[in-house]
Amino acid sequence: MREAIGNSFVLNFIIVFIILFILIFVATLTYTKAFKVKNKIVDIIENNDGDINSSVISEIDSKLGEIGYRVDTNNGCSTDGRFSGGSLVNRGQNNGYRYCIYEFSTNKGNYYGIVTYAYLQIPIIGVNLDFPVYGETRTFLNLK
Fold it and tell me: How much is the pTM?
């Protein structure tokens, strides 16, 4: 009887370990995609020298579609905390992508803060999590 209890305990331990490993792996993949999206947005803004207009936004949206970024109906962007010194430039609402672009002013010039989100869904227990990923562009000098 002792061996049967020991084997079932080891089997349960292995199953829990495998489930945790798969969850960590999936979370890493989604976080990597959010970083990739953030880096693409930063590259597009820097290639256009910080001039955010409708053509830049449409280029961002087309790149997000190529990457396979998730369309989200929640387009809420935070205006408190670390973003209190910046002004919200774009919410990313054109095609339903959830990203936020903030503009910050300094003595040297302006720079942009970009927030994208990593999504993790656990359908068995009905949990939907989203984790913000933040990045900044270089400073665009004021030449006026």
Answer: 0.81
